[in-house]
Design brief:
The structure holds two protein chains of two kinds. Chain A has 14 helices and one strand. Chain A is mainly alpha-helical. Classes of the chains: A mainly alpha, B alpha/beta. Strand 1 of chain A pairs parallel with strand 15 of chain B, so a sheet runs across the interface.
Chain lengths: 341, 484
């Protein structure tokens, strides 16, 4: 007979970190499946490669730092899957592996692992390859090519440390009608072309592996919100502020600015708002700070898209929000019960 | 007052939309309101506070009445069973005492006397483990095998003819303390300072801790005594009205108390949301009256005084009879208890004798908890006695212990603790500061002092960080370091 001693409370909700992380991975699986259906082998290989490289990086840093095996907390898996979904489908696999290692090592391990990282590791990985491989990361491949389940997009299989294989001959060989190799946002920026809404929902528009269907992302995000694995306030604040700004610009600025649906459905806004900005470790905890954080990300996204050199903006907006999160928490603390005015 | 208030007539004061009986309480069969919309609306109006958690209730033996357990052979009565100065023994070793006899007097204003819980002989006055496990002076009483349940040492008194000062003295003389857990002498709480006029007595019948059912059963079995106790407390404290707050999962108790409410509306009953920690006095006041007790202040600043239903029910029973507080209702529950239920247990009964009688001998690795599972403390030894503040004895087995203690992770900033803290603190930040031993910053910038250790943050933490324990350690550090 032994007496166990623990401090109160002696009950627990039963929820733990691996459970939360595992459910985020579950929620991303339909997105992965959709992208594989769109882009075939290349997408599958990219997701697998990037995820495995993240897991390898995590394991190596465990060994080097002498800590416990943290693969079981599923956070490296999320980083890998999310990172793969932000890369273009034709991204050379070896570059994907580089992105995976950069994400985990520069984005997380360097700061002490899960919970200590100031920036979303997947976005750190993406920012790294955006700087390292500017051409590859803006080379878009058409979806739904007839041979997608039997052959790779040529650039996927680029030899390590080589420039990506040229895909223009492959694109013309596949005779994809109307494929321009530009994203909806880029086509607006340079040609003022308004992409049809249905193309942006069904995944026919050029985009990163996992950002093509705003609708699917929304459904997967709602699952996490319903199961209380995600803070609904962040996506609402991000999308809400972006939408409000887009409407205001369109209303007062006129046709110079893109229509609101283009802003909402394109360029990873949904992916970022639902799965990147909500990364727990890098977002604030106080209610007012959470709203401010979301609003800042939405606003900066619009500012970058409308006035910056990039057609995209979500990634840097979230990294910017991540950097501000501790400050927001410090200055926008929760209101204490019974606080004297 | 914009919330449903139930008086005897069942009328909803100041809230005309509510039919009587209140629509949102599915009371007796057939009495359900057909006004679906009103019912929906009023359940939304039901008093509550912000945040908090919803642990599974585990209230297992609700249908059973309160039972008695046989007297143990020995009782250990710590002289400090209450907050304040320890009592002073009036008996010597070898002296025979009768059940109900005064054996230790109070020492000063914030103190309470002790009465013998059974017939027997004083065996020793010596240090013994108290409820916190610390060795302090205690009276050890060897119980006669023929000791009866009858109380022979009491002096019936006419409570109605007493003035408030006499009532306060009489309440102190029977050794009444808060039975909700804090064990603060009741008379001292009722004796409000002259400059702070209290006008409302809040009767706390929430019992929000999982597993515990002792207050619920007292409300169900002793409604008349409860009313008598409320009237005594109102007169002693000079309050004009009383509000009984009961969580809306205790419909039986609400149904039983309602007919006993006076028609003049001086005592009313209000159902409040079932949510932990609804029974914390600040949360209950918020739920009943919508008022915030100022940070660092007491309910008396708002003219309120809060007492537990169990305390008042016993007060109503014991004071007219002039009988000392010698036993209380204790909930025995948990997987390591073979005979779960609520029992009248005399003070001084050790955990060992309770578990010998009611425990499961096959439960090897166990944790014995005094009080509720959210705020109660684990007993370090079975020699600890039941005292005035012991509301429950829970025995948890290995299966329940492992999930929490097995592994912990770094804080992932999930904000669940912030969304759970009823005081509006940032436990995540406090936890990180305490890991850095930045105790001063915790107190100065993150309101450490407002934490009353309800345990919501630790309960929800997916990283299994022992947040509350870190805050206790930080507070203890700051307390001890304080210059004399």
């Amino acid at each position: 007979m032994s007496m166990q001693l623990r401090a109160s409370p002696h009950l627990h909700s039963g929820r733990d970190v691996p459970t939360i992380m595992r459910h985020v991975v579950y929620a991303l699986l339909p997105v992965c499946a959709f992208s594989i259906w769109q882009y075939g082998l290349s997408s599958l290989a990219l997701i697998v490669t990037v995820t495995l490289s993240c897991l390898a990086a995590e394991r190596i840093s465990n060994k080097m730092s002498g800590t416990v095996n943290t693969l079981s907390d599923w956070s490296a898996t999320i980083t890998g899957v999310l990172l793969a979904l932000t890369l273009p489908p034709a991204f050379p696999l070896w570059m994907g592996a580089v992105a995976g290692f950069a994400a985990v090592w520069l984005g997380k391990s360097l700061f002490g692992g899960l919970g200590h990282n100031p920036f979303n590791p997947a976005l750190v990985g993406r920012a790294f390859v955006q700087a390292a491989f500017p051409t590859a990361i803006t080379t878009w491949a058409p979806a739904f090519t007839p041979q997608r389940f039997v052959e790779f997009i040529p650039s996927s299989l680029t030899l390590p440390l080589m420039q990506p294989n040229d895909i223009t001959t492959w694109v013309s060989a596949n005779m994809v009608d109307g494929f321009t190799g530009a994203t909806p946002l880029a086509r607006w920026k340079f040609e003022h072309f308004v992409y049809p809404v249905e193309d942006m929902i069904t995944g026919a528009a050029s985009a990163s592996t996992g950002e093509t269907s705003a609708l699917l992302l929304l459904v997967c995000g709602l699952y996490l919100i319903a199961r209380k694995f995600m803070d609904w306030r962040i996506p609402v604040a991000v999308v809400g502020s972006a939408l409000l700004l887009a409407l205001a610009f369109r209303l007062f600025g006129g046709d110079e600015y893109p229509p609101a649906h283009l802003v909402l459905l394109s360029g990873g806004l949904m992916l970022g708002a639902l799965f990147m900005a909500t990364d727990m470790a890098t977002s604030p905890v106080s209610p007012r700070a959470i709203w401010a954080y979301g609003a800042i990300i939405g606003t900066v996204t619009i500012l970058i898209r409308y006035f910056g050199g990039l057609t995209e903006g979500v990634m840097y907006a979230i990294l910017f929000g991540n950097a501000l999160a501790p400050l927001l928490d410090k200055y926008l603390q929760p209101k204490v019960f019974g606080a004297r005015k | 007052m914009d919330r449903p208030v139930y008086s005897e007539a069942g009328s909803a004061k100041g809230f005309s939309l509510l039919p009587a009986p209140p629509a949102h309480l599915p009371l007796a069969e057939g009495s359900k309101s057909s006004h679906g919309l009103v019912s929906l609306f009023s359940s939304w109006r039901r008093g509550s506070f912000q945040r908090g958690v919803h642990p599974a209730p585990h209230k297992g033996t609700l249908d059973q009445p309160i039972k008695r357990m046989p007297f143990p052979r020995k009782l250990v009565l710590p002289l400090a069973q209450h907050i304040g100065k320890p009592s002073v023994p009036l008996v010597g070793v070898g002296e025979e005492v009768a059940r109900g006899q005064l054996i230790a007097r109070c020492d000063g204003a914030v103190s309470a006397p002790i009465h013998a819980p059974a017939d027997g002989v004083i065996e020793a006055i010596t240090p013994r483990p108290n409820t916190r496990g610390a060795w302090t002076d205690a009276i050890v009483l060897r119980v006669y095998e023929a000791s009866t349940q009858e109380v022979r040492c009491n002096l019936p008194q006419d409570v109605d003819s007493m003035d408030p000062a006499q009532l306060i003295t009489a309440i102190q003389q029977i050794g009444m303390v808060g039975l909700g857990g804090a064990a603060f002498p009741s008379h001292a709480k009722l004796n409000a300072p002259a400059d702070k006029q209290v006008h409302t007595l809040i009767v706390n019948g929430c019992e929000c801790e999982p597993y515990l059912t002792c207050d619920y059963k007292l409300m169900r079995e002793w409604p008349q005594e409860l009313m008598a106790g409320i009237r005594i407390a109102m007169r002693a404290s000079g309050t004009a009205r009383a509000i009984i707050g009961v969580e809306d999962n205790k419909l039986d108790a609400i149904k039983i108390i309602r007919p006993h409410l006076p028609s003049d509306g001086s005592i009313t009953l209000q159902a409040v949301a079932t949510k932990y920690p609804q029974g914390a006095e600040k949360m209950l006041i918020k739920s009943l009256l919508g008022l915030d007790v100022p940070n660092g202040g007491l309910p008396s600043q708002l003219g309120l005084v809060v007492h537990n239903v169990g305390t008042l029910a016993l007060l109503g029973r014991l004071l007219p009879q002039g009988q000392g507080l010698i036993e209380r209702v204790v909930t025995l529950a948990g997987p390591g208890i073979k005979k779960p239920g609520d029992y009248w247990i005399p003070f001084g009964t050790t955990l060992r004798s309770i578990l010998d009688w009611a425990g499961d001998p096959d439960c090897k690795e166990r944790e014995v908890i005094l009080g509720g599972p959210m705020m109660g403390s684990a007993a370090s030894t079975l020699d600890i006695p039941v005292s005035k503040g012991t509301s429950g004895i829970l025995v948890f087995d290995k299966r329940m212990l492992e999930p929490i203690t097995k592994q912990s992770w770094a804080c992932i900033h999930c904000s669940e603790c912030v969304n759970a803290c009823p005081m509006g603190l940032n436990p995540s930040q406090l936890g990180m500061l305490s890991a850095k031993l930045a105790f001063d910053e915790m107190a100065e910038h993150y309101h450490l002092g407002d934490c009353f250790e309800c345990g919501c943050c630790s309960y929800v933490c997916p990283s299994h960080i022992p947040l509350v324990q870190q805050f206790r350690a930080a507070k203890a550090f700051l307390r001890e370091r304080k210059p004399l």
